[in-house]
Write a structure and sequence with these properties.
The complex is a heterodimer of chains A (about 100) and B (about 725). Chain A is mostly helical. Chain A is built from three helices and no strands. Chain A has a single domain, classed as Helix Hairpins (Orthogonal Bundle), CATH 1.10.287. Chain B has about 725 residues and is mostly helical. Chain B has 30 helices and two strands. Chain B has a two-stranded antiparallel sheet with strand order 1-2. In chain B, helix 13 runs antiparallel to helix 18 and helix 17 packs across helix 26. The longest helix of chain B has about 70 residues. Chain B is elongated, with a radius of gyration of 37 Å. Classes of the chains: A mainly alpha (about 100), B mainly alpha (about 725). Chains A and B meet through helix 1 of A and helix 30 of B.
Chain lengths: ~100, ~725
C-alpha cells in the first residue's frame, strides 16, 4: 500500500465524479457526482496525512469535509425540492434562469 | 399769525382726507367740514393780511426755509413758505373766493349723488392752490402746479357720465401737460445751471451770472410756457371754454378766479429772471390771446362760454400787462378780476340753476324774476367793462397805461400795437359783456315756459354774489395796492453789471443752515430781500452807469419800477401822460362798447341777425372759435394719429420683419443643428449602443446557463493550467 496507489484511486474517483457532474442532467445525480469529488479529496487528505507528516491535520480536515458534504447535501436537496415544486423537474438544464 | 401760515394749506387737505374717506357717512355729507376748514383758512389769511398790511412796507418779506432732502450737511432741496405782499393778497383772494364758492355749492350741488366727493375735490383744490401761492421754490410751485391741474381735471369731469364732460376733463389735462412740459424744461435749465431751486437762490445765482444770455431767455420762455397752459393763453387757450362742462361753482373758483390766475401769479413770482426778449414774448402772447378770445366771445350763445372766453381775454390782459412792464397792473387785474369774474360765474350759475338752460337766446327778462342776481351780475359786468368807480376800471386802466408807456418809450413804433390792441379789445369786452347782460336779463322773455319756472336762488347762493359784487368796487383796491405791490428789480438785466458777492454768502448761509424751529429767515423788516439791496446799492452808487447799460428794448420792462423817483423829469412826465391818455381813451372806448350793445340788442336800431348775415363768413369764423379746435384736430391730433399709424407700420413691417427674419434664421440654424444631432451625435450614441448590443448578443452565447458547460470549462481550464505547469 503506497501513496501512489492511493492517489491513483483518488484521481480515478475524482474523474468519475467530474464525469458524472458534466454529463448527468438530473440534479440529484449531479449532487452524487459532487459527493464523489469530495470523497476523492478526502482520500487525498487522508493519504497525504498518513504518508507525509503523520500529523492528524489531514484526517481532521477529512472529517470537516464529510460534515460539510452532509450540510451541502441537505441544502442542495432542499433547493432541488423547491425547484421541483416550482418547475416540475429537477433537470439542471431547466435551471438556466436567474429568476423565477 | 404769520408764524402759523404753513398751517393754512393743510386745513383743506385734512378735510379732503376726511371727506373722501367717510364723507358719505357724515351728517350733511361733510359739506360743513370743508366749508369750516376753508373758513378757518380764510380767517388766518385775513389775519396774515392784517399783519402784512399793518407793516405797510413794499419790501415786506416773511421767508421760512426747512431743509427737505439733505445729503450730509448740505440741504439738497428745501421747502418752506414765502410771504410777501403779493402772496398775502393772493392768499386772501384764494380763500375768499374758495369760501364763497363752497357756500354757493351747498345750494347749487344740493341733491347731487356725489355731493361729498364734490366737496372733497374742492378741498384738495384749495390745498393745492394755497400751497402754490405759499411755495418758495420752483420745485414746490411745480408740484402744486400739477396738483391744481389734477383737481381741475377731477372737477371738470365731475359729471363724467356726460361724455362731453369727461372729454373736456381729458382735454384740459392733456393741453395743460403741453405747457407744463415747457415749465419743466425751464426748471431743469435753471437747476442744471444754478443748482438751486428756491426763488431767491435762483435770482441770486442769475445775478451772479450763472445763467445768462440765450439760455436765460429759454429758461424764461420755458417757465412762461407753464403759464400759457394754465392761464389758457394762445395757443393753448382751447381747453378753458370746454372746461365749462364742470359744475358752475367750479368754473367760478378754478376756471375764472384762482387756478387760471396761477399762471399770472407765476409770471409775477419769477418776474426778476425774465430777459427783455421774454417780456416781449409774454406781451405778444397776451395781446394775441386778449384780442382773439374777445372776438370769439362776441359770437357765442352759451352764457358760460361767453364768460370763459372773457376769462381768457382778461387773463391775456394780465399777461400782457406783466409783459409790457406793468407788474403792479397785471397783479392788480388778477386780484380785481378774481372778484368780479367769480361773481359773474356764480351769477351765471344762479341763472342756470333757475332756468335750466345755458343758451342766452332762450333767456331774457330775468331782471324781474331774479333781482339780486341781476344787480350783482350788472355790477360785475360794469367792473369788467372798465366803468369808472368799479374795480375793473382801476386795474385795466393801469394795464393800458403800462402798455401805452411801453409803446411811447420804445424805439420801435410797432410796440404801440399793445396799447391799440388792448384798447380796441376793451371796447369789445364792454360790448360782449353787455350783450350777455341784455340778452339774459333785459327785454322780453323768449322762452315762456323757462321764464315762468325761474325763481331767485336761495340765500346760500345769493350771499356770495352780494359779497363778490361788493368787492367789485374800486375803492377796495386803489391806493394801497399800487404802494405795496411794486415791481421787483430785474436780476436778468443787471447780471452783467452787479456782483452781489457779499449778499450772496449771507443769503446762502441763511438758506442752507436754518434752525430746526423753522423761523430762521423770518425777516419782515430786519433783513430785507437779498436781491434788493444789491440792486438798490448799484442804482444809488452808479445810477448813470445803470442808465447807460439800458438798451432801448429793455427800457420799459426792465431796470426800473413805476414811480420810483429815480427816473428823469421827462420820464415821470411821460408816465403821467401815458396814464392820463390811457384812462380817457379806455373810458371812451368802454362807453362806446356799452352804448353799441344797447343800440344793437336793446333799442333794436340795428338788427343783430342782419348784421350777422351780412358778414356771414366772419360770423361763422368767430362762432367756430377761429376754427382752432378744427385746426388742432387737423394738425396735432391727426398728425399724431398719422405718426402713430406710420410708427405702427414701421413696427409691423420693419421691426416685426426683423424679428421674423431672425426667427426664421433661428429656425434654419436649429434645423441644421437638429440634423447634426440626429445624424452625428445620435449616430455616435446609437452606434455605441448597437456595438454594445451586438457584442452582447455574441458574448451571451457563452452564458448558456447549462451547469455542465460551466463545469466543462472549469475542468478544461484546470486541465490547461495543469498542462502549462507540468511542461
Amino acid at each position: 500500500m503506497t501513496l501512489d496507489k492511493l492517489l491513483v484511486i483518488a484521481a480515478a474517483l475524482f474523474c468519475c465524479g467530474l464525469y458524472t457532474v458534466m454529463t448527468r442532467r438530473n440534479a440529484v445525480a449531479v449532487l452524487m457526482g459532487v459527493e464523489l469529488i469530495l470523497n476523492a479529496t478526502n482520500i487525498n487528505f487522508v493519504a497525504f496525512s498518513f504518508f507525509l507528516n503523520r500529523m492528524m491535520g489531514g484526517q481532521i480536515f477529512a472529517v470537516f469535509v464529510i460534515v460539510l458534504a452532509a450540510a451541502e447535501a441537505a441544502v442542495a436537496l432542499a433547493i432541488f425540492l423547491r425547484m421541483f415544486s416550482t418547475t416540475g423537474t429537477v433537470e439542471v438544464d431547466a435551471a438556466d434562469q436567474l429568476k423565477g | 399769525m404769520i408764524r402759523y401760515a404753513y398751517i393754512i394749506p393743510f386745513l383743506p387737505l385734512l378735510s379732503f382726507f376726511i371727506n373722501i374717506a367717510v364723507g358719505k357717512r357724515l351728517p350733511r355729507k361733510g359739506d360743513w367740514l370743508c366749508l369750516g376748514t376753508i373758513a378757518v383758512a380764510l380767517a388766518m389769511s385775513i389775519g396774515i393780511f392784517y399783519e402784512v398790511f399793518g407793516a405797510y412796507d413794499p419790501n415786506f418779506r416773511y421767508h421760512v426755509v426747512f431743509p427737505w432732502i439733505t445729503v450730509g450737511d448740505r440741504a439738497l432741496l428745501n421747502t418752506g413758505i414765502l410771504i410777501d405782499n403779493v402772496t398775502a393778497v393772493m392768499l386772501l383772494v384764494v380763500t375768499i373766493v374758495s369760501t364763497l364758492v363752497h357756500l354757493f355749492s351747498i345750494g347749487y350741488m344740493h341733491g347731487d349723488p356725489r355731493y361729498s366727493r364734490y366737496f372733497a375735490y374742492l378741498s384738495i383744490f384749495s390745498f393745492s392752490m394755497l400751497g402754490l401761492v405759499l411755495a418758495e421754490s420752483f420745485l414746490f410751485i411745480y408740484i402744486f402746479w400739477e396738483l391744481v391741474g389734477l383737481s381741475s381735471y377731477l372737477l371738470i369731469g365731475f359729471w363724467f357720465e356726460k361724455k362731453s364732460a369727461s372729454d373736456a376733463g381729458k382735454k384740459a389735462f392733456i393741453v395743460n401737460r403741453v405747457g407744463d412740459f415747457g415749465f419743466l424744461i425751464g426748471i431743469l435749465i435753471i437747476y442744471a445751471t444754478c443748482g438751486v431751486l428756491g426763488y431767491d437762490q435762483v435770482f441770486l445765482a442769475i445775478g451772479e451770472g450763472k445763467l445768462t444770455g440765450t439760455l436765460l431767455t429759454l429758461a424764461g420762455i420755458g417757465v412762461f410756457c407753464g403759464a400759457i397752459g394754465k392761464s389758457a393763453q394762445f395757443p393753448l387757450h382751447v381747453w378753458l371754454p370746454d372746461a365749462m362742462e364742470g359744475p358752475t361753482p367750479v368754473s367760478a373758483l378754478i376756471h375764472a378766479a384762482t387756478m387760471v390766475a396761477a399762471g399770472v401769479y407765476l409770471v409775477g413770482r419769477v418776474y426778476p429772471m425774465f430777459t427783455p426778449d421774454v417780456f416781449l414774448f409774454i406781451a405778444c402772447i397776451g395781446l394775441i390771446t386778449l384780442f382773439l378770445t374777445a372776438t370769439i366771445a362776441l359770437a357765442q350763445n352759451d352764457i358760460k362760454k361767453v364768460l370763459a372766453y372773457s376769462t381768457c381775454s382778461q387773463l391775456g390782459y394780465m399777461i400782457m400787462g406783466l409783459g409790457v412792464g406793468g407788474y403792479t397792473a397785471g397783479l392788480a387785474h388778477l386780484t380785481t378780476h378774481a372778484a368780479f369774474k367769480a361773481c359773474l360765474f356764480l351769477g351765471s350759475g344762479s341763472v342756470i340753476h333757475a332756468v335750466h338752460s345755458q343758451d342766452i337766446q332762450e333767456m331774457g327778462g330775468l331782471r324781474k324774476k331774479m333781482p339780486i342776481t341781476f344787480v350783482t351780475f350788472l355790477i360785475a359786468t360794469l367792473a369788467i367793462s372798465g366803468v369808472p368807480g368799479f374795480s375793473g376800471f382801476y386795474s385795466k386802466d393801469m394795464i393800458l397805461g403800462a402798455a401805452l408807456e411801453f409803446g411811447m418809450k420804445s424805439a420801435n413804433p410797432l410796440h404801440m400795437i399793445f396799447f391799440i390792441g388792448a384798447l380796441f379789445t376793451a371796447g369789445l369786452t364792454a360790448f360782449y359783456m353787455f350783450r350777455l347782460v341784455i340778452l339774459t336779463f333785459f327785454g322780453a322773455p323768449k322762452d315762456h315756459h323757462k321764464f315762468d319756472h325761474a325763481h331767485e336762488s336761495p340765500p346760500s347762493m345769493w350771499i356770495p354774489l352780494v359779497i363778490l359784487a361788493g368787492l367789485s368796487f374800486s375803492f377796495w383796491y386803489s391806493g394801497w395796492f399800487g404802494t405795496l405791490v411794486q415791481k421787483p428789480k430785474s436780476v436778468a438785466n443787471l447780471a452783467a453789471i452787479s456782483a452781489p458777492a457779499k449778499v450772496a454768502t449771507v443769503e446762502h448761509a441763511a438758506v442752507l443752515a436754518p434752525s430746526p424751529h423753522g423761523d430762521a429767515v423770518s425777516a419782515p423788516a430786519g433783513t430785507p430781500h437779498a436781491a434788493r439791496p444789491a440792486v438798490h446799492g448799484e442804482l444809488q452808487e452808479g445810477g448813470s452807469h445803470a442808465e447807460a447799460e439800458r438798451t432801448p428794448h429793455a427800457a420799459a420792462p426792465g431796470g426800473h419800477g413805476e414811480g420810483h423817483g429815480e427816473e428823469g423829469e421827462h420820464d415821470a412826465h411821460l408816465v403821467h401822460m401815458a396814464h392820463t391818455y390811457a384812462m380817457y381813451s379806455s373810458v371812451a372806448v368802454g362807453t362806446l362798447g356799452i352804448f353799441l350793445a344797447f343800440v344793437v340788442y336793446s333799442f333794436g336800431w340795428i338788427n343783430p341777425a342782419r348784421v350777422a348775415n351780412a358778414v356771414k363768413p366772419l360770423h361763422n369764423f368767430l362762432q367756430n372759435k377761429w376754427y382752432f379746435d378744427e385746426l388742432y384736430e387737423a394738425t396735432v391730433i391727426n398728425g399724431s394719429k398719422a405718426l402713430s399709424r406710420g410708427l405702427a407700420w414701421f413696427d409691423m413691417n420693419v421691426v416685426d420683419g426683423l424679428v421674423n427674419l431672425s426667427a426664421q434664421l433661428g429656425v434654419f440654424v436649429s434645423f441644421l443643428v437638429g440634423k447634426f444631432d440626429d445624424y452625428v451625435v445620435d449616430g455616435a450614441v446609437n452606434g455605441l449602443a448597437s456595438a454594445t448590443t451586438g457584442s452582447g448578443s455574441v458574448l451571451r452565447r457563452l452564458q448558456t446557463g447549462k451547469l455542465y458547460h460551466y463545469v466543462f470549462v472549469l475542468a478544461g481550464g484546470a486541465l490547461i493550467i495543469f498542462l502549462i505547469k507540468a511542461f
